[in-house]
Amino acid sequence: MPLTQVVSSRCLRLAALVFIAGLNLHCASGQDTDGVSAAPVESVESPAERGLVQQFNDALEPVDSFFGTVNGYIATVIFYPVPLGGDDSIPAAVLVLLLGATFFTIRMGFINVRGFKHAVMVTAGKYDNPDDQGEVTHFQALTAALSATVGLGNIAGVAIAICIGGPGATLWMVLAGFIGMSSKFVECTLGQKYREERPDGRIMGGAMYYLSRGLPELGLGGLGKVLGIMFAILCVGGSFAGGNSFQVKMSLGAVAQTLPFLAAPEVAGAADYRWIYGLLMSVVTGMVIIGGIRRIASAAEKIVPAMCGIYVAAALVILLKNIGQIPAALQLIVNDAFTGTAVSGGLVGVLVVGFQRAAFSNEAGVGSAAIAHAAAKTEYPVREGMVALLGPFIDTVVICTMTALVIVITGAWDPVQNPEFASLIESKNGAALTSVAMDQQIPGFRYVLSVAVVLFAFSTMISWSYYGERCWAFLFGDNASMSYRIIFLIFTFLGSIVSATNVLDFGDLMIFGMAIPNIIGVVLLSGKVRKDLDEYWQKLKNGDLEVTEQ
Amino acid sequence: MSFTTSKIVVPVDFSGESPHAIANAIRIAGDASKLHLVHVLLPLDTVSPGVLLGDVSDDARRKTVTEKLNSLAAEHGAAEATMSVLLGTPGTEIADYAKDQGADLIVIPSHGYHGVKRIFLGSVAERVIRHAECSVLVLRRSDAD
């Protein structure tokens, strides 16, 4: 076949894809989500006087406002305010996650507590069998899933939560992490149970597979197919936004603290170089996902756990330096959790913010981690579920709590007492807020955090590109990856230029949207998990499970 | 115009259609040793945990697929066929392989994708037809109306 024919056939397919994407977005456009889009700033120059960089940014403005418009339509469904009596309401997706996690915790007999010790032993390799079917060990699967969740959500997302919801959000966030461990257990067990093996030994699994393959066993094939496709579409969206643009946006915020020329201009028309960061991230990510240079991604995956350790250690140093303030901070957190008076919104407001940020950070109930955990080598699906429940513990109960305590103790959440943080709070620039707060306590730490944040962002993006690509393959076939990768890189670039509010909202919408089909399916399939769990637990109690010699 | 049948390439993707294609090719050739069973592996991604942290590699995949290809062939009376595992884009790889081997005929099943999958994937059979320099027999799906 002549080259021109190959090229034209590919171009046609790409054109069709762009057309479909355009249709989808066009249909969804209409109104702003919450009226918090970036305030217009007066221009100081006439268009004729504006340089190339400024004109480039002008041309991108409609892209940003388009994000805001799209958000509005999707939000009316996913964040539909469910009335709770009086003036209070709770967004539909948050309610689904809250009810789901509570249900799974009870249905699985508090597996988040009773399975914890066993989970640690399995992760440590005590039950590893290299002959089991799969691609990675339990520990590697947990590392992969954690590299998707530990990232900007823990640093930026938590800081935003405390600013919006008040210190009380911390308590609800920790509680959400705690019961989220049960959601993660159930979904990742199902991810293993209904995974598919390709002829070359590669494993395909995740929520889209257990929804479409598990629900037919209950006579709900039609529903399974619809939920599986719905999940996959939203996961692709989540991988573009929360797993990609959001990471770029928030890491840029922290980097701009040390490299001010990358900061957003304070006056419209001033030179704006944020796109350089977007371009750089796109190039490096492109080198991995299109160029096939996997050494870059491997290096990041290996450095990230060390960065995690440094971050937690720094947070502990700050807490120790301020040990006298800890009792008062804890009291403030507990009191505010039930009154919600520190910022506004009352009990429901603070609870919603806490749950929302926890879910965004640890993804429990969202169904994404099941894609990574499905790849683990194991004889018993329940065993991988146990490993998975450590994810929300490490991510939320430990790391998010560290960020939250630092933000509360340093007072960075309170623009009235500490006006130096006001502009960062207003722009929802969470990573920069944490960076400034920590730097005040440990001078120079913002430089370390800048590096950590970029690495966190990068490893999260790599992991989410994997989630998104798997869902894309589920929708369009294994051979369609290249189109996904190109769109992913476009969103990487867009992350540097669209406003934080719009990116954050779009990321939230997609990732919380995934929770709706996922939780419905997982609740329906939870009986099967409980049965498997009881059998496994009995074997464990009887000492029938083979332990690996170490 | 006619075709000879001394060397027939049969692409195998391990779907339900593969045994059907093997059986037809044996019937046309009259002897399974004239068959070349070919599986094309898609290039590995660079972001999955198995690739980044685990032991997934092209060599491991090749080994697994070769074993499966041998057992499928044995099951369907084609144990004497030549087995090949290639890496790349299925349509072009199959056509190039047939050309390199000097094959007379390619026997390929059609999956009949519709809608969006059709737009994204096109059809391997379609691409084989466009690229191949020998005759191509596209088998209608065994469950087609």
Q: Can you offer a commentary on this structure?
A:
The complex is a heterodimer of chains A (550) and B (145). By secondary structure, chain A is mainly alpha-helical. Chain A has a single domain, classed as Amino acid/polyamine transporter I (Up-down Bundle), CATH 1.20.1740. Chain A has helices spanning 3-28, 52-78, 92-107, 111-114, 116-123, 138-149, 152-165, 169-193, 207-214, 221-258, 274-289, 294-321, 326-339, 346-362, 369-373, 381-388, 390-410, 422-426, 430-441, 445-476, 481-495, 500-542; strands at 81-83, 89-91, 196-197, 203-204. In chain A, the strands form two sheets. Chain A has a two-stranded antiparallel ribbon with strand order 1-2. In chain A, strands 3-4 form a two-stranded antiparallel ribbon. By secondary structure, chain B is α/β, with parallel strands linked by helices. Chain B has one domain: 3-Layer(aba) Sandwich (Rossmann fold), CATH 3.40.50. Chain B has six helices and five strands, in the order βαβααβαβααβ. Chain B has a five-stranded parallel beta sheet with strand order 3-2-1-4-5, sandwiched between helices. The A-B interface holds A 1, 5-6, 9, 13, 16-17, 20, 135-137, 140-141, 143-144, 199-203, 288-289, 292-294, 297-298, 301, 372, 375, 462-463, 465-466, 469-470, 475-481, 483 and B 13-14, 39, 41-43, 45-56, 60-62, 64-65, 68, 89-90, 92, 95, 113, 116-117, 119-122, 127, 130-131.
Layout of secondary structure:
The complex is a heterodimer of chains A (550) and B (145).
Chain A: H1 3-28, H2 52-78, E1 81-83, E2 89-91, H3 92-107, H4 111-114, H5 116-123, H6 138-149, H7 152-165, H8 169-193, E3 196-197, E4 203-204, H9 207-214, H10 221-258, H11 274-289, H12 294-321, H13 326-339, H14 346-362, H15 369-373, H16 381-388, H17 390-410, H18 422-426, H19 430-441, H20 445-476, H21 481-495, H22 500-542
Antiparallel strand pairs in A: 1-2, 3-4
Helix pairs in contact in A: 2-22, 3-8, 3-22, 5-16, 6-17, 6-20, 7-14, 7-17, 7-19, 8-9, 8-13, 8-14, 8-16, 8-17, 8-22, 9-10, 9-22, 10-19, 10-20, 10-21, 10-22, 11-12, 11-20, 11-21, 12-17, 12-20, 13-14, 17-19, 19-20, 20-21
Chain B: E1 8-11, H1 18-29, E2 35-41, H2 49-52, H3 58-75, E3 82-87, H4 90-101, E4 105-109, H5 115-121, H6 124-131, E5 135-139
Parallel strand pairs in B: 1-2, 1-4, 2-3, 4-5
